[in-house]
Specification:
Order of helices and strands: HEEEEEEE
Strand content: 35-45%
Radius of gyration: 21 Å
Strand order of the largest sheet: 3-2-1-6-7-4-5
Number of strands: 7
Number of helices: 1
């Protein structure tokens, strides 16, 4: 009979652990770690800074505004237009992004950070 009393406690602990892991990964409170992908960024125009990010997979493309992201490069960092992005050229980058869920439904991935992988500005010699 004594061996039977620990089974409900074990089941309750496992259930509490599973519930805690689910809540911890789905609740939007607190600091979030960005997911990181490597690919190419392309600045479409400087009128509104519309840009795109592409990993080469047709199902893995994101759009963003280049003047609204934090950035880093081998030599510096800042906010706003990353210096490696030049209109009309694809450049190698890493991006940090997170998934944002809207209150009324729907969600999308939003780029918050870009790392320029080449220190030089393309097309400038």
């Amino acid at each position: 009979m004594r061996a039977m009393t620990w089974k409900p406690v074990l089941v309750a602990l496992v259930a509490a652990l599973a519930l805690g892991m689910f809540i911890g990964s789905h609740v939007s409170y607190g600091t979030k770690r960005l997911k990181v992908k490597t690919g190419e960024a392309f600045l479409h125009n400087t009128d509104n800074w519309l840009s795109s990010f592409d990993t080469g997979d047709p199902d893995d493309q994101l759009t963003f505004y280049a003047n609204a992201v934090d950035w880093s490069s081998p030599s510096s960092g800042g906010s706003g237009h990353p210096p490696c992005l030049v209109e009309g050229r694809a450049v190698p980058v890493r991006v940090g992004y997170t998934r944002v869920t809207y209150e009324g439904g729907g969600a999308r991935e939003v780029i918050a950070w870009i790392e320029c992988l080449k220190p030089e500005v393309p097309g400038v010699e």
